[in-house]
Amino acid sequence: MTTNGSQILPTTEGQVRPITKLEPQDLYLTDVEEKLLSLIEREYGIDNAASSV
Fold it and tell me: Model confidence at 24, in pLDDT bands (50, 70, 90)?
């Protein structure tokens, strides 16, 4: 597909594909991510690493 010079093409993904809403489960960390954060906290002595995400 080529343009003829006067056709305006989208510059961002949002102009091409509609923004979708996240499902509630997508908004929270998975169990695996929570376990990894817990290990990182213990290894490096960090308190509440998940709260800064």
Answer: low
